[in-house]
Each structure stands twice: as C-alpha cells, then as structure tokens.
Amino acid sequence: MRKDRILLLVVALLIMASCQTNEPAIIPISEEMVIDESGSGAYMAWFDEQDLNAQPSTRWDTYGMRTYWPASLVIDLGRKYQITAIWVYDGEKEDRVEGGILQVSSGKPFEWGSAKTLELQNKAEWVKLDWQAETRFVQLQKQATVQYNKGSEFPENSDLAIREVILMGYPLEEKIPVDEKREHVAFNIPMDQFIGMNSYIHTPDRVHEAIGCVREYRPWRWNGVTDLETPIDWGDIKNVSGKAEYSQNNMGNSDQYYQKMKEMGVECIPCIHRHVDEWNEHENVPSFGGDPNDPFSYKIMADYSFQYIARYGSKTVPDNLLRTTEAAPKKSGMGLIRYFENWNEPTRWWGEPAGHFTPYQFAAFCSASYDGHLDQMGEGFGVKNADPDMKFVFGGLAAISLGYVQAMKLWSDEHRDGSFPSDVINIHHYC
Fold first, then answer.
1. Torsions phi, psi for 348 (to 5 deg)
2. CB of 302 within 8 A of CB of 290?
3. How high is the mean pLDDT in each 10-residue block of the chain (431 residues)?
C-alpha cells in the first residue's frame, strides 16, 4: 500500500511539472542568444524592457542605406520551444522612423519558413502577433516601407518604431549544453611595434621612423589587375589612372618598397582595396555582376591574393602558377611581408550603397581570398594556397560591430564547416 501511494505521488508530481512546463511564459533573451545579420545598431534594445505592463523607451536603430535592409536578427533559444505568441510594442512615428513590416520566421539559419508578418501602424501600443511554431531558432526581420531623402542620389530607408519584442512560449526539450568559452591569450607586443599608421608606397620614409607597422593602401589595379588572364606587372607603378592623388608619374617599385620597409624594421601590411573598374576610383563590392553572396563571384580577388602572396610571402611557388610579366625564373617566396588585408571598411554606411558588404557577402569575399573557398576554386587561388603561414587580415570594419563578426561566423558555420576565413579580426574605432 505504501509503495502504491509513493507511485501515485510521483505520477502526480510529474503531471504537475508537465502542466507548469506547458504554461506559456516570457522567454528570456540574452545577448549571447542573438546574432545581428545586418551588423548595425544596438539590437538588444528590443529585449531590454520585457514588461507588457510598461511602455518601452529604447529602439534598435539600423542605418538607412538600402544595403543594410532588410535587417534581421537570428535568435538561438538553445533548445526547441513551442512559441505561442509574440508581443511587439509598435511605437510612435518619428523623424526617419515610420511604417515598416516585421516578419517572423522559424526553422534554422539559411533555411527559414513559416513566416508571418505584422504591418506597423505607429499607434504607441502593444500588439499581439498570434504565431505558433515549434523551433529552436527564430528570425526577426525588419522590412522598410517608407523612404526619406527621396530627392537625393541614394534615398534611404526609414526605420521601424518597434521598441520591444517579447517571445511567449515554453520549452519542449532539455537545454542543449554549449561549449565553454576559451581562455584569451595575451599578446606581449612592444609599444614601438604596436604603434602604426596608414600609408602608401610613395609616402616619404621619414614619416615611418616613429612607428613599427604600416597598413599600406594598395588599389589592385595599380599592378595591372583587371581579369584572370592578363599577366601582372610587379615593376614600377606608373601612369596610374583614377583620382588625382593617384595619378602620379612615379608611384614606386613594389619589390624595392617592401625590401626597404623590412630593412627599416617596419612591418608592412598591404591593404588591397578599390574596385578594378576603369578609373580605379570606386569602393564597390567587386562581384563583377555575379551574386555577391557567392564566393565564386570573387575569383579575380582570390587569384590576385594568391599572386601577391606567392611573390611577397615566404614560400617558393612553381613558375607555372605565377602569372607575371617577368621572364623566367620568376620571383616567389621573397619573404617581405607576413600579413595581408583583403579590403578596407566593408561596413561603410555613407556614400554609394554598392560600396557596402553585408556580413554574409563579406564572409563570402573573405572565403574566396583566404583559400579559394576551401580550395574549391583549384590551384592558384587564395592566400593560404600560396603561403599557409601568411596571416590573413579581413578588411577593417568601419566601426566596432561584434554582431557583424558573429554573422560572418554564422555564414562560415554553414558554408565552411565552421572554418572562419580570417586569422586576424580587424576593427576601426574613430574617436
């Protein structure tokens, strides 16, 4: 009899626990759970005032440049949930904040489905979106419906007035354990090596005497790069077309420049940038009419990256892989540089929208120039295939954005089996 009572008590407790588990509640959202697919703005402003009885005050701002839109967040709940509803605080209309649509999707990154939309009315009230889904991942996407600066060359999108988003539901499974964070290793770099500057091949030597490293801007057309067939001229850079500051009769000799910088004790890091257009003056995404999300659209950069490192890196490369104007034996493995940066400020929010990379586009671009997208392009593509020891630096972001880097990592998990296409994370901070 006693055993029967104990068994009944256990069953009752299990039933009670089950009932409690299935009661919808606010799902806590922490910063570690969210990835910003646009890389723009303080997105946690959507999850910092989780109270349906309050009037939220903060908003997630996104740049108006059209290439930042639609702007999406990916939420990893850590386990499968039954989502029962989503509450949205639809704020008032403000300057450059008006209208828009919120789209909610379930599934997993890059494979979204079950989308439902909410058209905002700017009535300063909580709005319930009845949305049922069994999912671990949720995508919240802002879609603009109103523009400003319509008379300008590049009209921009008005942001959405959403001030808070609350997910309601209950877990369907146990929490999935996550890997422990790795311990950071400190780098002991002397100050004379740590201080550096942006520079060009024609910058006077005396300017470099006070620093230990140089980030050398190098438009890729300077070496005659326009396609995958034309031999590259590594000699004197002359008669450079484009903007006036580059149109000099003598820009210098690349071999001599890197040799000189090494002898001066200055670490020289070439930063390849500017599109290979006729006038060499644009910073547009160099996808050459292809899909900017496809690494194979960047084969010219992957080829040039290989050729550059084959010459100035530390490994000797067979002559048949060297595409240069010089006669055999061709130079390779000169050992003059140890770092290579593949672009400059891909996150720009000013000027022409075509100059801005989304995180996924830049990840694809880096994947091409890093190792020919996991060697899929074949021989002669990517920095690592010319010199595995070369440190690859992704183009410096124009501002601090952890979300942008996280989105690049998400792309790499999906398209590179988790291999991140860069050795150095490069971020600019203007102050």
1. -55, 135
2. no
3. 51 45 91 94 96 96 94 96 97 96 97 96 97 96 95 93 98 82 79 87 89 90 83 76 52 90 94 72 82 95 96 96 89 97 92 90 97 97 98 93 94 96 93 80
Distance CA 231, CA 223 (A): 9
How many C-alpha atoms does 390 have within 13 Å on its Cβ side? 38
Torsion of CA 302, 304, 309, 311, to 10 degrees: 150
Find where tokens 């550096």 sit: 196
Q: How far apart are CA 259 and CA 234, in angstroms?
A: 13
Lookup: tokens for 261: 């910088």
What is the end-to-end Cα distance of the chain in Å, rounded?
Answer: 77
Q: Measure the CA–CA gap between 398 and 269, rounded to whole angstroms.
A: 18
DSSP readout, 277-328? -TTS-------TTS-TT-GGGGHHHHHHHHHHHHHHSSS---GGG--BSSPS
Residue 90: which of 130, 50, 118, 62 has the closest Cα?
A: 118
Q: Quote the CA–CA distance of 343 and 424 in Å, as a whole number.
A: 13
pLDDT of residue 31: 95
The model's pTM is 0.89
Residues forming beta bridges with residue 71, ordered by sequence position: 142
pLDDT at 55: 95
* Tokens (6 digits) for 6: 């104990």
Residue 21: its pLDDT value, please?
A: 62
Angle between helix 359-375 and helix 402-415 axes, rounded to 10 deg:
40
What secondary structure, in 3-state letters, does 178-233 show?
CCCCCCCCCCCCCHHHHCEEEECCCCCHHHHHHCCEEEEEEEHHHHCCCCCCCCEC
Cis peptide leading into residue 286 (ω within 30°): no
Per the omega criterion (within 30 degrees of 0), is the bond before 388 cis?
Answer: no
Q: How far apart are CA 200 and CA 71, in angstroms?
A: 36
Helix then strand count (H, E) for the chain reads: 6, 17
Q: How far apart are CA 284 and CA 276, in angstroms?
A: 9
